Amino acid sequence: MTAVVVPETSTEAIATGRLHVSQVLRRPVPLIALIVILLITVAVILAPLIAPYDPLAQDLDNILAGPSAAHLLGTDELGRDIYSRLLYGGQPALLGVLVASVVFAVFGLILGILAGYLGGWTDRVIGSVLDVLMSLPAIVVILAVLAIFSQSIVAAMFVLGLLSSANLARVTRSMCLALREELFVSAATVSGIGPVRIMFRHVLPSLIGLMVVQVALFAGIALAVQTGLGFLGLATPPPAPSWGGMVGEAAQTMSQSGFFLFVTGAVIAVMTLAFGLLGDGIRDLNADLKGRSSGASKILLHAADGGQPVSPEGIVVEVRDYSVAFSTPSGEKKIVDRISFEVERGQIFGIVGESGSGKTVTALSLLGLLPQNGTVTNGHAWLDGQDLATMSEKQYERIRGKEIGLVSQEPMVALDPLFTIGSQLSEVVSRIGDVPRREVRATVVALLESVKLPEPERLMQKYPHELSGGMVQRVAIAMALAGSPTLLLADEPTTALDVTVQAGILDLLRELRDSRGMTVLLVTHDLGVVAEICDSAIVMSQGRIVDSGSIDHIFYDSDHPYTRALIASTPTLEDGAA
Ligand SMILES: Nc1ncnc2c1ncn2[C@@H]1O[C@H](COP(=O)(O)OP(=O)(O)OP(=O)(O)O)[C@@H](O)[C@H]1O
Questions:
Q1: 358 in contact with ligand 1, CB cutoff 6 A
Q2: Where is the protein found, in the record's own terms (predicted)?
C-alpha cells in the first residue's frame, strides 16, 4: 500500500488567504480599497522623489491659489504647494497608523491567545490587565504621552494601539476558547504536541482572517485619531506638514479658499474609507470561504493496490474497500470499515442502517465534507471514473454542486434566513449553473416548477421562514439541481417532515430521476422509505455492510439477522391500525 497525503485543510486555506481570482473579482471592493491604500502609501513614501516643491517653501505672492499646471492642487495660506505638503504630510500620518496597527495586532493576538488557550490563572491575570487597559480614558493618556514625549506621534500611536488591543484580545480569547474545544486541537494534544506548537500551528492560522479584518478597521480609526490630534495642533509641530495640521490650516482660511479644505479633507476621507472597506470586504470574503469549505476533509489515503476503477459500463459510483476514521481524544475511531458497493446510472440507491451505523459519514466523505478530524484511511470511491478519495479541495469545489448535489435532513440549514428564495436560488444558478445573467430568473422559475412548487414568481419573493417544511425541502432540492448533477446525495431528506409531505418528496425524487436520468444516493434509517423508492440498497451496521442487493432481495430473500431485525422493527400500516 502506498501512503498518499493530500493536505487541504480549509481553515488553513482561509487563514493563509489562498483566494481564487474569481472570488476576489466577485467582490472587487476590498481589492479596490487595497489598491487605493497602496497607491497613496507608495506616493507618500516616494514624496522626496515625486513632490515638485519643498513642502516648506513659501511663495507669498501666490497664496491660496487654485489648481494650476504649476501647482496641481493649488497653494495654501503661505503659498506652499498643497500637493507636495500632502505627500510629505502623509509620512507621519501613515507611520503613526503603522505603529498603532502593529502594536494593536501583536498585543491583541498574543494576549488573546495566551488567555484563551492556556486559561486558568494566565487567563485571569490577562483578563485583569485587559480590564485596566479598557478602563483607561484613551484620549487623556494620549495627551499625557504627547506632553511627556515632546509631541511624538509615534509614542502617541503606540499607546493608542496598546489601549485598543484589549478589544482584539477579548475577541481572540473567545475564538481561542472555541478552538480549544475543537477535536483537531484535542487530537494534537493527545499526539503529544506541545502547547506552543499547537498555538502557532493550529490556533494562530485560524485567527489570521479575524486579525486582518480587525487591523484594517482599526487602521481607519488610528488615522482618524491621528488627524484629529494634528488638527488640534498636538502632533507634528508646524511648519512641518501633517494631514491633520493641514486640515486645521485649511479650516482657518475656509472663507477665502474652500478648495484647500476640500482637497486635504478628501485625502484623509478616502484613506479612512479605504481602510474600512478593506476590513469589511475581507470579512465578507472570509465568510464566503468558510461557508464554501467548512468541514473540508483532510485526507490521508492508503491507496489500495491497483487504484483504478473497474466499473462496468453504466456504473456511476463505485466504492471499493473504503474506510473512514476519526481522530478523537481517546485515539483513532474507525467509523466506516472497508465498504464496497456500486451504483448504476439512473438508480435510486439506498444506504440504510440504524443510527450511528456510519451512513452519513459515508455520504459526507464522498462529498469531501468530513469534519476536521475525519480521514479517508483506505480505499477508493469513483464518480464517473474520477477518484473522490484522492481529490484536492480545489477539485472538489469544481464537482460539488455540479456533479454531486446534496439534499440534507435539515433543509433550513441550506437556506439563509436573511435572503429571499429568489435571490438565493439566483445566486446558486449563476454561480454553479453557469447561466447568463438575463436567463437566471427564467432558470430559477423553471427549477421551482421542476420541484412542483406552485406560483414560482411569488415564491421567489418569500423568505425561508414563510414556507412550510415540505416547501423548504423542495426549494433545497431545486437548489441541489441547479448544476444538473449526475448524482444527487439525499441524506434523510424526509426525516424532518410529516408523513404526507414525506410521500410527496419521495414521489418528487422518483420523478426527477425519471425525467433527468439522475442517480440518487439515498441515506436513511427508514426501511419503509427504501421499500417505497429504492432500486437497490446496502444495509450498514457499525460501519460495515452487512447486507446488499435489490430491494426484492433485501425484503423477501435476505436471511441476514440484522436485515430481518430492521424489517421487523419497521412500523407497517397494520401496526398503525392495531
Ligand atoms: N467528528 C466526529 N468525531 C468522532 N466521531 C464522529 C464524528 N462524527 C460522527 N462520528 C461518529 O460516527 C458514527 C457514525 O455517524 P453517522 O452520522 O454516520 O451515523 P448515521 O448512521 O448517519 O446515523 P444518524 O442517522 O444518527 O446520523 C457515530 O457513532 C458518530 O458518533
A1: yes
A2: Cell membrane; Membrane
CB 108 within 8 Å of CB 169: yes
pTM score, whole prediction: 0.52
Dihedrals φ, ψ of 290, to 5°? -65, -45
Q: Is 326 in the pocket of ligand 1 (CB under 6 A)?
A: yes
Rounded to the nearest angstrom, the distance between the alpha carbon of 361 and the centre of ligand 1 is 6
ipTM exceeding the 0.90 mark: yes
Query: Which residue is it, cell 469534519?
Result: 371
Measured from the Cα of 354, ligand 1's closest atom is: 21
Q: Measured from the CA of 371, which atom of ligand 1 is nearest? A: 1
- Residue 529's nearest CA partner among 556, 490, 577, 477 is 490
> How far, in Å, from the CA of 332 to the mean position of ligand 1?
14
Kindly tell me the sign of the dihedral angle through the C-alpha atoms of 93, 99, 102, 107.
negative
What is the spatial distance between Cα 377 and Cα 386, in angstroms, rounded to a whole number?
18
In degrees and rounded to multiples of 5, residue 33 shows phi and psi of -60, -40
Cα–Cα separations (whole angstroms), residue 199 to 39, 194, 235, 552: 35, 9, 39, 55
Residue nearest to atom 31 of ligand 1 (CA): 356
* Mean pLDDT confidence for 340-366: 92
